[in-house]
Amino acid sequence: MKFLQFFVLPFLMVILSVSGANLARHPHRDFLRCLSLRIANSSTITYVHNNPSYPSVLNASIHNTRFSTPTTPKPYAIITPRKTSHVQSTIYCSKNHGFQLRIRSGGHDVEGVSYVSQVPFVILDLVNFRDVKVDTKNEVAWVQSGATTGELYYGIASKTQTLGFPAGICHTIGIGGHLSGGGFGILGRKYGLAADHIIDAKMVDANGRVLHRKSMGEDLFWAIRGGGGNTFGVVLAWKVKLVPVPTVVTVFTVNKNLEQNATKIFHRWQHIAHKLPNELFTAVWVMKVNSSQVGKKTVQASFKGLFLGRIDELIPLIQYAFPELGLARENCTQMSWVQSVLYFGALPTEPVEILLNRNALPRLSLKAKTDYIREPMSETGIEGFMNMFLEEGTDFAITMIEAFGGKMDEIRENEIPFPHRSGILFESVYIVQWINEEDAGLCINWMRRLYSYMSSYASKSLRAAYYNYKDLDLGTNNINGYTSYEQASVWGLKYFKNNFKRLVRIKTMIDPMNFFSNEQSIPPLLSP
C-alpha cells in the first residue's frame, strides 16, 4: 500500500495533470473529435481555419462588413448542419467542450451578434435549413430558419397570387432571426407582425430535446415569437399562417426635398398616416441627395405607399385625406403583392426570381438605431432632424419612418413579446453606412448625435427600441459570468417593456445554465 501511496499514486497524479493540461490546451481538437463520434462524415459540414472554404463560408452571410475586418474575432469552427441530429450534436459538443454557440440564419444581425463573440465560439449556420413548403388549401406554410424572406415570398407567389405573408421588405434576411424578433413590414398595418402569424415551430433546446408547440408548452411558444434569437434554443422551422392579398396592388413614391416643402408635408403626414385605412401602408424615407443647384446637396423625403387595391381607389382616398402630398396617377404603379416587396426593396420588379438571389444587395458597414414616436414632431423639430442629414458622414445615411396604427393598434402589448403596439404613430429606423473603415468613427458619432437629437420626440417614460435592429449602445450582458436582472433590464425593457419579466422567467425555466447567450440574449435568474 505504501508503494501505491508514495510512488504509483503520485505518478498517476502527474500523468493526469499533464493530460488535463493537454485537454485544457486542446479544446478545439476535442470538440472536433466529439463531432466526429456523433456525426458520420462530420468533416463535410464542419469548417475550421485550415479549411480552404472557411473564409467563403464565414463571409457568405455577413451582411454588415463592419464585422468582417482582420481584427474581428473569428469562430473556431462553422457547422452547417443538414439534419436535426447534427444540430443536437453541435449543441452537445459545444456545451461539453467550452464553446459558446452563435446561431446564424441570414447573417443580417446589425451588431454581428449571430456570428461574432469575444469568447471562444463556434457558429451554427443554418444555411442548409432552407426548405419552404406552402399549403394553399389550408393557407399555411412551413419554412425553415435558414430560408430568406425572399425565398418564402417566392415560394408563396409560385403557388398562389391571392396569399401573402406580412414580413419585412429586405428579401435577403433570414427567416429565423426575422421571426424571432417580430418582423414588421409593408403589410403590417393590415395584418400585424410576421411573428403574429406563427402557429407552430420546431426547435432544439439546450438539452438536445426536439420540441414542437405542444411539447414545448405555451410559455416557451410565446417567448420564441418575438423574444429574440439565440436565447431559448435553436428554432429549425416555423409554421406560419398566410394572409389574403388582392391579385393587384398599387405602390407609389412621391419625392419632396427641403425646397419643395418636405418639412411641412411630413408634419402633416405624421398626423394622418396612422389613421388611414388599414389597406394603406405609408412610409417616409429621409436621405441626402443632390440639389438642383450644381455642387449643392439637399435632403429628400420620399413618401412611399402600398395600397391593397387599384389606382382608381387610391387616388381619391389620398386626395381626400392627404391632399398636401399631391399624389398623381403617374406616381403610381399597379403590380402583384410579391412585386411590391421588390419595389420597396429598391429592386427591379421583374423577374421575381430576384427574390432567390441572396447577393442582390450591396454589403456595406453600418450602424442602426430605432425609435417609436407617439406624439407628432413640431415643424421646427422636423427641420432640425432633416438638416442633420447635410452634415459630414451622411452620404449613405437613411431614416425609414413607417406608419403604425391599423391592426397594430388592435393587438395587445403582451400578445407576443414584441410590445410596441397601440398609440404609436410611427417607427423610425435610423441607419448609417460607410465604405471605408476610416469613416466608421465619423459615421457612428453622427448616428449617436442624431439619436440624441430625437430623444425629445421619442417615447417619454421609456425610450423603446426594436430588437430586430439590435443596438449594443443600449446596454449588454456580461459575456463571462452572471448578468443580473437589473443589468439586463437596462436594455431588455427598451425592447420588450413589461414582457421582459416573463421572458426572463421562461429563460430560467428552459435554459437555467444560460448555454444560449450573447450580448443581448435574455438572461436567466440566478438560482437561490
Task: Report on the architecture of this protein.
The chain is an alpha+beta fold and 528 residues long. The protein has helices at residues 2-25, 27-38, 54-59, 84-96, 149-157, 175-181, 188-191, 213-224, 262-272, 311-321, 337-344, 379-387, 407-410, 440-453, 485-496, 499-510; strands at residues 46-48, 77-79, 100-104, 121-125, 132-135, 140-144, 163-164, 198-204, 210-211, 234-241, 243-244, 249-257, 280-290, 297-307, 332-335, 365-373, 397-403, 426-434. The strands form 4 sheets. It has a 7-stranded antiparallel beta sheet with strand order 15-12-14-13-17-18-16. α2 runs antiparallel to α4 (84-96) and α9 (262-272) crosses α12 (379-387). The longest helix is centred in the first third of the chain and has 24 residues, at 2-25. The chain starts with a helix and ends in an 18-residue tail after the last helix. Mean pLDDT is 93; it is low at 1-25.
